[in-house]
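ARCHIVE CARD
Drawer: 12
Card no.: 0347
Subject: one protein chain, sequence and derived structure
Cross-reference: see card 0346
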Amino acid sequence: MQSSQNRIPLDRSDPINSAIKNERDLMMSFYYAPQKKKEIFSDLVKKGLKGSGNYGMLGVGVYNGQTANSIVPENNASLHTVLHFSNPVRLNGGQYLEYSFHGYLGKYQTSSVTDGVTASGQLDDQGKEISANGAFFDDARAAVSLMFYPQPLGFQMEYNVGTGPEYDWQSNAIKNEFLHGGYITLMGNFMVGSAKIYPFTRLQYYKGGKKFELDAREYDMAEVEIGTEWSPFFPFEIQVTYSYAKRYYSDAQNPVNNNTGHLLRFQFQVNY
């Protein structure tokens, strides 16, 4: 939903970022928004409400599908197709609500694969499963987003479901599997003198594959993160966050990998 400049948590969320690495790719798109909606998109950013940015009320596009800066060219005949709808609404009392629907459809070619991992159900001329390295898999998502902008309290949530490549350690193969996950962020927006403070808490969960990682790693993760962003004056921002996470992932080199951990981080950012 947001770039790093407008997103309060330091990291993109796992369940949404699993669709497109760093949420960037080579794309051709068309965005449209009527003038009244453009004004709302602009107001959200000007008021420091961490707006989503103006990517139109309606967006349609085609993109490579292998993610940005990938060593793998677009070898299949069809590009990914994406559809986006977002509607920001100005409510009584000056509050803002934005709801969005998104989806994409395409084929993904795996490229980072351990030797011996096969593509489940994809057979060669001799009836044997082919190597997963360079194999094509269905890649599709549907998502919903909801944002109640903090004045002074608000929330942001996104959830997506779909299908994509995912490693299965029992068969040592990559399969097309169902995936799902999302997050909710509770946030505040307060003025203390001339400084702005954005306290937040984010809960996220994801179960599914990450197609751009080794062997399209299988993930099952949950994380809670709390923190505060402090902007003493524009363009400076200082942030401190604490996270507690449980993460399981599986690939051919680490079939069963469970991790639990705590993380404390600090960031200083200059916007321009």
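Annotation on reverse: The chain has a mean pLDDT of 92. DSSP finds two helices and 14 strands in the chain.
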